[in-house]
Automatic annotation (TrEMBL):
Top-level lineage group: Eukaryota
Cofactor note: Binds 1 heme b (iron(II)-protoporphyrin IX) group per subunit.
Domain Plant heme peroxidase family profile: 1-254
PROSITE patterns named among the record's database cross-references: PEROXIDASE_1 (PS00435), PEROXIDASE_4 (PS50873)
Binding site for substrate: P94
Amino acids binding heme b: H124
Protein name (record): peroxidase
Residues that bind Ca(2+) 2: T125, D175, D183
Function text: Removal of H(2)O(2), oxidation of toxic reductants, biosynthesis and degradation of lignin, suberization, auxin catabolism, response to environmental stresses such as wounding, pathogen attack and oxidative stress. These functions might be dependent on each isozyme/isoform in each plant tissue.
PANTHER family: PEROXIDASE 25-RELATED
This enzyme's EC code(s): 1.11.1.7
Annotated S-S bridges: C50-C250, C131-C162
Transmembrane portions of the chain: none
Length: 254
């Protein structure tokens, strides 16, 4: 499981692929990647991998409002042939329920440091999450009590968005102030105990991490580090040379 576009593969048979793993159920845009791949294949078939298309698309989607690329994307990746939901459900991806120690160890195992951890968490300023990813914070010990690291006013708001019994399809903005804008409001929210996930609140549990959260409320520091961290993350477990393949369609192996 790395930067090999395994997330794009559809489930085949009874073995679920990564895109059907619980942490990935809110992901969108697969149809758009298919359209890009089709257009690219018409011009230069068998040359550009789905992994590179995904990396470039992520960069360009975030960068578009700024009218300039926010980080360089090095191309030449090849596509993986295996996609397993079990890998996405394991310790390969940070869980929204993770504490700081777990997060730091996971990022370290991927060659990422504390600055990378805090910077990449800032991507939570975009998108939505299912109620199940944070619901336990609203009934922390089973006695209808609130996670003490969560702002009470924000908790009350979340209860209105995810009333009991919870609809499994209900989603909530991860950053209510700017879920469609890439900015630093996530860090302001986390500093005020209004991070949606336990993993967001965990960034305040470590003194160095908490200091970095405060630092990244400045756009200058955040954008600079986010760019560096995305380059590092984009090089994790990359397939090159004769490894993997260049898929003709991103949803299925050749």
């Amino acid at each position: 499981m790395g930067c090999d576009a395994s997330i794009l593969l559809d489930t085949v048979g009874s073995t679920a692929s990564e895109k059907d793993a619980r942490p990935n159920l809110t992901l969108l845009g697969f149809d758009l990647i298919d359209k890009i791949k089709t257009a690219v294949e018409e011009v230069c078939p068998g040359v550009v991998s789905c992994a590179d298309i995904l990396a470039l698309s992520a960069r360009d989607a975030v960068s578009f409002p700024f009218r300039r690329p926010l980080w360089p994307v090095f191309t030449g990746r090849r596509d993986g042939r295996v996609s397993l939901a079990s890998e996405a459900n394991s310790t390969n991806l940070p869980s929204p329920f993770s504490n700081f120690t777990t997060l730091a160890q996971l990022f370290d195992s991927k060659g990422l440091n504390l600055d990378d951890l805090v910077a990449l968490s800032g991507a939570h300023t975009l998108g939505r999450a299912h109620c199940g990813a944070f619901l336990r914070r609203l009934n922390f010990t089973g006695n209808n009590d609130i996670d003490p690291t969560l702002d009470l006013t924000y908790a009350a708001f979340l209860k209105t968005q995810c009333p009991t019994p919870v609809n499994s399809s209900t989603t909530v903005e991860m950053d209510p102030q700017s879920s469609l804008r890439f900015d630093t409001s996530y860090y302001s929210a986390v500093a005020r105990k209004k991070g949606l996930f336990q993993s967001d609140a965990a960034l305040l549990a470590d003194p160095a991490s908490a200091k970095t959260v405060r630092k990244f409320q400045s756009a200058r520091f955040f954008f600079s580090q986010f760019s560096k961290s995305m380059v590092k993350m984009g090089a994790i477990d990359v397939l090159t040379g004769s490894n993997g393949e260049i898929r003709r369609q991103c949803r299925i192996v050749n």
